[in-house]
Amino acid sequence: MELGEYELEEPGGRLVERKRGKDTVYVPLANTEGGLSISLARGARAASESGGFRTYVMRDRVTRASAFLFESTTDAATFARWIETRLPDLQEWLAGAPVEGLSRHAKLREVETHVVGPMCHVLYAYTTGDAVGMNMITRNSYALNQVFVLEHSPVKPRRTYLEGNMGGDKKISHRYFEGGGHGKTVIAECTLVEEAIRRVLKTTVDELLDLAFVGTHGAVASGMQSVAFTPATAIAAMFIATGQDVGMVGTSSMAHGTALRVDGGLNVSIRLPGLEVATIGGGTTLPYARSWLALMGCEGPGKVYRLAQVVAAATLSLEISASAAMATAGSENFYKAHFERGGLR
């Protein structure tokens, strides 16, 4: 696969791609679903025989959306206008405040407000290095709310809430599906050649395009928050193997897949707008997780963007194979796979 190497450009925290390179990566999966590993490997093989995956990290932010309740809309609007102009002050305060427990690794990048009646939601957007960082940004946001805001705000809130449920934490939402902002926004793509589609996937470009047509409109008709086949399956298996927070599988599995006929084959891609992964902290410190992360070249500091790209490529691998099985006449291959490897009958 072809991956990018990324870093955050200071002081604004803009994500910059420094260079690209190719590598072969072995992917660990922890699961009990019959056929998952075989199917994912089949999709990866089809991609490999078509030139491999190409992956890109587009954005990196994580949000804590605090909320402030006032006596009136007037006060809420006044507060919103005030705090939106104080970003440099908030950043400076976090960098030097003598408050116990503040994280210097969590860097506040933007502040956005949303006023509804007498309440003002404040979306603090951070970067958190190689950690997912929810504990970090929780501590920092709490300090901002309880110390900086209460000391300096021109209007005093009636109540203050650390999270007002706009932050995207462990819950899918259209806001973060469309714009990202809670985790890594990652895209994986490959151009499947017709020979690999025929020989490895046992289907055709036309059959895959017909399935994409039906599946996309099915997603729209149901109000589905994703346009994809089964992204959560691959993501959950990798999360368990590598010590990630499985509570974040839901948000991390928001996905938008595409399929486009091109010369010689089919370009396919998947966009994961809120992939929450880490290479330090939490479950990644467990021996088994460190071993699997090391296998992928993703252990420790400086590796989180690589891990995000590997997860995206693995997710697309399963999308390719599962879609191919469903695309066959009557979805026969999909049925057979589940009949033969589905456990109890």
Structure description:
The two termini are 39 Å apart. Helix content is 41%, strand content 24%. The protein is elongated, with a radius of gyration of 22 Å. The model has no long low-confidence stretch (mean pLDDT 93). It is an alpha+beta fold and 345 residues long. The strands form 2 sheets. Strands 3, 4, 5, 6, 7, 8 and 9 form a 7-stranded antiparallel β-sheet that branches.
Shape: elongated
How far apart the termini lie comes to 39 Å
Percent helix range: 40-55%
Largest sheet: 7 strands, antiparallel
One letter per element, helices H and strands E, the order comes to EEHEHHEEHEHEHHHHEEHHH
Mean pLDDT: 93
Which regions contain 5 or more consecutive residues with pLDDT less than 50? none
Number of distinct beta strands: 9
Number of helices: 12
Structural class of the helices, strands and pairings?
Answer: alpha+beta
| Rg (C-alpha, Å) | 22 Å
Instruction: Assess the beta-strand content as a share of residues.
Output: 15-25%
